[in-house]
């Protein structure tokens, strides 16, 4: 396991160097999706939380190797699993909602396991001679709570997406005509929230055509996001991708992507731009299945 982690981390370092140098001799190790309408379960709307989650999983794997004290390990596990659950439940990075629910459920189940471990190793009020019974009861408690914990996490993920989307769309629909656009959606805290809410455009009338009302709602959300975060490279890039994939305005969308290049984009935004450039060079600025 440690060897696999070392190899994986080495691959990440290599990809980071490619980002920095803007040279990508091999693209296959990195899966970045720039099409807002893709139906691939692995597609990410924003990759930051998934990168953080990967780092947390690496540390989770190494805790047992590096610490060696059961109580300290249990506390570390609890803190790390709570952080992991927060990443998935707060940001819901996947474009396909059921994947967010799945990962949210698994992360909360991991928190439940960590809670059970903390209770097991600290055994509050349990005498040493009763430890065997305590261990058996905690094992039973752990197993009986796994499914409810998973369901709780899945429902929390679904509710978070629904709450963010409905709150923003309601605010836009009921806003006064003269209200500043950047002050309407009070629940939006970052461009990543804009991306999550803009997924409301993913409503199909049939296999090939989007619902026009849903697209218009997403357009309003992105306009509000641009007003709130005018200097965000990711926000401008999201706007460009929306224009290309959803509105079908390739030339204007490409210009927006070039605008994002001027706003000091981070490494992942640069790679998304690279993917768009590669698509443009082979003439596939279209909708992917």
UniProtKB/TrEMBL annotation:
Annotated PANTHER family: GAMETE ENRICHED GENE 10 PROTEIN-RELATED (PTHR31600:SF2), TINY MACROCYSTS PROTEIN B-RELATED (PTHR31600)
Spans through the membrane: 74-89, 109-126, 138-161
InterPro entries (UniProt xref): Tiny_macrocysts_regulators
Coiled coil: none
Full protein name: Uncharacterized protein
Signal peptide: 1-18
Entry keyword set: Membrane, Signal, Transmembrane, Transmembrane helix
The keyword Transcription appears for this protein: no
UniProt key word Glycoprotein: no
Domain of life: Eukaryota
């Amino acid at each position: 396991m440690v060897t696999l982690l070392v190899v994986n981390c080495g691959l990440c370092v290599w990809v980071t160097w490619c980002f920095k140098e803007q040279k990508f001799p091999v693209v296959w190790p990195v899966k970045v999706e720039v099409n807002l309408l893709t139906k691939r379960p692995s597609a990410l709307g924003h990759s930051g939380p998934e990168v953080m989650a990967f780092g947390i999983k690496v540390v989770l794997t190494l805790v047992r190797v590096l610490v060696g004290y059961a109580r300290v390990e249990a506390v570390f596990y609890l803190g790390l699993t709570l952080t992991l659950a927060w990443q998935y439940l707060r940001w819901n990075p996947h474009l396909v909602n059921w994947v967010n629910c799945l990962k949210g459920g698994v992360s909360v189940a991991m928190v439940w396991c960590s809670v059970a471990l903390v209770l097991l190793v600290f055994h509050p009020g349990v005498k040493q001679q009763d430890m065997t019974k305590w261990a058996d009861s905690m094992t039973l408690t752990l197993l009986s709570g796994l499914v409810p914990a998973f369901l709780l996490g899945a429902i929390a993920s679904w509710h978070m997406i629904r709450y963010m989307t409905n709150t923003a769309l309601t605010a836009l629909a009921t806003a006064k005509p003269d209200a500043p656009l950047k002050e309407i959606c009070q629940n939006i805290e970052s461009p990543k929230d804009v991306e999550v809410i803009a997924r409301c455009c993913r409503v199909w009338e049939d296999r090939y055509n989007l619902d026009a009302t849903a697209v218009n709602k997403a357009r309003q959300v992105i306009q509000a996001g641009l007003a709130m975060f005018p200097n965000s490279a990711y926000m401008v890039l999201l706007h460009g991708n929306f224009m290309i994939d959803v509105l079908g305005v390739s030339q204007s969308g490409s210009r927006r992507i070039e605008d994002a290049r001027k706003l000091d984009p981070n490494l992942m935004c640069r790679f998304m731009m690279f993917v768009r450039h590669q698509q443009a060079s082979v003439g596939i600025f279209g909708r992917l299945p």
